[in-house]
Amino acid sequence: MSRARRVSSISTLIVVALMAAATVRAQTPAAEDRGYVQAVAESAFGNVTSQSYGAEAGFTVKPNLQVFGSFGHIGNVATDNLSTAAQSIAGALSQLQLGTVSFSVKEPATFFVGGVRYRFPVTSVLKPYVSGGLGVASASKDTKFFINGTDASSTIPQYATLGSDVSGDESALMFTFGGGVVWPAWRQLILDFHYLYGHISTDAPINVSRAGVGIGVRF
Amino acid sequence: MLKVRSCFAATAAVCIVGAACSKSSNPTQPSTTAAASADGAAATASVTVPRAVSPAAGVTIRNTDQPVTLVVANAVVTQSAAATYTFEVSTDSAFSSKAYSKTGVAAGASGQTSLTIDKIPAGTNYYWHARAEGGGTVGPFSAARPFTIGPAIVIDSATLVSPISGAGTGARPTFTVTNATHSGPAGPITYKFEIASSSAFSPVVVSGTVNEGVSRTTYTPNIDLPPETTLYWRVTASDVANAVSGPTTLPATFVTSFAIDLKKVVYLNSPDVSAWPQTAVLSLVEQDGGGDGPVCMSYTDPGWPDSPWPFGGPDPNFGVYANQWYFARINGTWYGGAGEWIYRGASSCKAGQGTKTIGPDSGFGPPFSSWVPKVGELVGFMVSSVARNGPVKRTVDERSNVIVQPWRDTTLGSASVGRAK
User: Fold this and answer.
1) Is B9–A164 a contact, with Cβ atoms under 8 angstroms apart?
2) Higher-confidence residue: B290 or B85?
3) How far apart are CA A148 and CA A142, in angstroms?
4) Who has the most CB within 10 Å: A86, B271, B305, B376?
5) Rounded Cα gap, residues A89 and A120, in angstroms
6) Structure ipTM
7) CA angle, A19 as apex, A14 and A21 as ends, to 5°?
């Protein structure tokens, strides 16, 4: 499934959930909780698919409006640019020495995002919301070249100078938006099913969508 | 509580934005300042080492083949960044003693980039390498590749010996030079002789290249030079193997003598020799028409075979191998014929060729038989393999050049010089 189709499908599910929740909107809102804290596990869909995990806490600042802070780590947000550059270098290495050259690229990212979450005033057990946030992400390009299957990191400098397009760490602004539904599973225990689109403004911009579930408590 | 929450939110926002504004980049290897691309990206490119192509490792380049051209296969520069190259040549592999360096060489469009460097000292071992840069990154230098510029070979000018400037010559004079001195590990030296009708040597009438002789080198043209013409000659010594030439000598002049067109000669009691190959060189004719004055001919003997002598005598089987030839212009027509026989080991001087005897001698028949040359009259002389018609059989049909000179007779006032007298 292509990235575009995955994003479209997830978006459709969230919209459907929000609409379903809205149809059971109650006449009188439930009592406000003060906030929540939860652990999050997600699948991340960018140029490549990987896993993401993290934690999030939110506080109610107004009825139906919460501010939140989210911290997480995405396993791989490598872009086409990174893969293409590494492929070019590997091709050159094949011409410069006799061994068989292969390579791997990975770009894990760690982020912290703060933002607001608006909870739709419904009486159903499913509590839909939309959220948006702004923060910072640090992406680390991890490109490795192998000659005859052996890591050639120590010999690469005689063949190439790697630029920041394939190596190094980079911190940049990150924004997210998305939505989900919160299901109060048992007493204070909540499950948060959500989808978030994220953009990291690195030199080679990174777009990554995350769909997953959070499990936490409200207070 | 609301105030606490609001404060947290505000603090978080400030922290987030503040952190994001301090973007850091820490590539695994140092690179130069990043160049912003059109979409705002500022990532530096990765640059591989260019692959050395030429000169090959360890090759020795002749000094005369300088300037050297260094060639590399283009490096890979990611992000489609334009690349420039730096080339360095040094006498040590650490490149601490650079003999040549150039940066900013634009990448070649054909997948290779080349640079022709300045001439560098001969007889020296060198190393060269190159690197690329582009997209804000300087790539590594290629491995130092050794090469050698061969020793310098110096060839001096040859010295013209003969013919001396202004001398008169025959149609095929022999040109002689004193060998050129040279230094360095020169290969075989050859000499190019050029003969032209102008001092600009354009056009060249004839030229030839010969191997160096012992102390002197000579050359004889294989065609007749134009008669009665002032010509120029010069010589250039060369080491062809090493493509080194010395300076060309200054030109010297000489004047060819009158020549006879052998194709228009009427041959008497003799074959037409105009097509016979010229294998002997007649260099001097001395004669004195007084009495039975002898005619002496000095020539190189190419080893013409003997022909049995059928006319009897004490040893009827001895051989003759050549004939003297005489050419006379009678009533505007040149007549010629083979005269005296020449015996191997005998003198090249033949008697019976005086002013009053040369015509009747040798059975030429009319009008030669009644010809009496006058002092100063131009007479031609030549030698050939056995040629006179008769029972003595011809052999290889070869001849010398023809020398035309004024008839001498000391009894009629000619100066008394030379052996013939």
Assistant:
1) no
2) B85
3) 19
4) A86
5) 51
6) 0.77
7) 95
B136, B34 Cβ separation under 8 angstroms? yes
Nearest to B249 by CA among B162, B316, B354, B160: B160
> Nearest residue of B to residue A63 by CA position?
B2
A204 touches A164 (CB < 8 A): no
Please report, for residues A111, A134, A166, B10, B24, the alpha-carbon distance to residue B20 in angstroms, rounded to integers and kept in the order given: 10, 9, 21, 16, 9
C-alpha pair distances (Å), B49 with each of B72, B86, B99, B132: 10, 11, 22, 7
* Amino acid A31: pLDDT: 56
Is residue A140 within 8 Å of residue A106, measured between CB atoms?
no
Say which range, B3-7, B45-49, B50-54, B147-151, has the weakest mean pLDDT: B3-7
| B164: three-class secondary structure by DSSP | coil
- In the prediction, which pLDDT does A156 show? 93
Q: What's chain B's average pLDDT?
A: 86
Cα–Cα distance for residue pair B350/A64, rounded to 1 Å: 143
Minimal CA separation from B85 to chain A, in Å:
14
- Of B67, B81, B72, B69, nearest in space to B31 by CA: B81
User: How many angstroms separate the CA atoms of B364 and B342, rounded?
Assistant: 17
Structure tokens, A32: 């406000």
Q: Is the pLDDT at A18 greater than 60, yes or no?
A: no
Q: Tokens 């026989």 map to which residue?
A: B341
User: From the CA of B76, how many Å to the nearest CA of chain A?
Assistant: 6
How many Å apart are CA B334 and CA B260, to the nearest integer?
8
Among A122-126, B167-171, B211-215, the least confident range: B167-171
User: Residue B313: pLDDT band by 50, 70, 90 thresholds?
Assistant: low
Q: What are A92-105's pLDDT values in tens digits?
A: 999 899 999 999 99
Q: Nearest to residue A180, comparing CAs of A159, A197, A163, A168?
A: A197
Strand B252-256 and strand B167-169: the pairing is parallel
End-to-end CA separation in angstroms for chain A? 39
C-alpha dihedral sign at B202, B204, B209, B210: negative
In terms of Cβ atoms closer than 10 Å to its own Cβ (0-12, 13-18, 19+), residue A13 is middle
Nearest-by-Cβ selection for B47 from A60, A160, A173: A160
Task: Kindly report whether the global pTM for this prediction surpasses the value 0.80.
Answer: no
Interchain contact A103–B (C-beta under 8 A):
no
Nearest to A162 by CA among B303, B260, B39, B79: B79
* Rounded distance between C-alpha atoms, residue B119 and residue B152, angstroms: 12
**CA end-to-end span of chain B, whole Å?**
148
Which one has a higher pLDDT value, B127 or A10? B127
- Phi, psi of B63, deg, nearest 5: -55, -35
Residue among B248, B269, B258, B273 at smallest CA distance from B382? B273
Q: Shortest Cα distance from A129 to chain B (angstroms)?
A: 18
